[in-house]
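Quarterly update from the structural biology core.
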Amino acid sequence: MAAFLNQALFGLYPYVALTVFLVGSVVRFDREQYTWRSGSSQLLRRKLLFVGSNCFHIGVLAILGGHFVGLLTPHELYLAMGLSVEAKQLMAMIVGGVFGALCFLGLTLLVYRRLADPRIRATSSRMDIAILLLLYAQLTLGLSSIFVSAHHLDGSEMLKLADWAQHIVTFQAGAADFVADVHPIFKLHIVLGMTIFLLFPFSRLVHIWSAPLGYVTRPYQLVRRRGGAAARRS
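Predicted structure, tokenized:
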């Protein structure tokens, strides 16, 4: 039973989640373009939004970039560059910890802002709140995994996770076997990460596709009440 569950979660589920992620994003853009937005609440608690949003986005973009490079770079390549497995893991822990803390600060402010203000909560959908809490849980797991990694600085767990990721993206068999005996916190981190990919097309996260390069420096959405200018003139 354990072997079946491991294969289902780490051999099959990633492909289900990534397929829904890609196909769902295309279908939503094609059929529901008017919902292809983040859903602005700029006029409410602007200071919290400014600090929280910038801290979160800078942190999360750095974390995603680090995961992409760290997991998908072939072991032989960084060894050829003179970077040992131990040094790579230590660098990942330090850089991930710094940007993870920045992201955690920003996300905490965003969660507080959305849940503590009755006006913002009233304009938030269930998916808005759910995806924010899932991201919060995922970030907490990621930061917690740093303390687990500190107990095996030889990089053995990191190599298993990288082998799993590289086998998944290259459609090689046996990917789930690499993570069969890794620490449970890494397994939870993977499953929750895949779940976020699964829910991505059905949430406000789709707006990331609109401007992936200029995302951090983009202006906020401007929301004006219809007829406001006329009311002011009167």
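The chain has ten helices and no strands.
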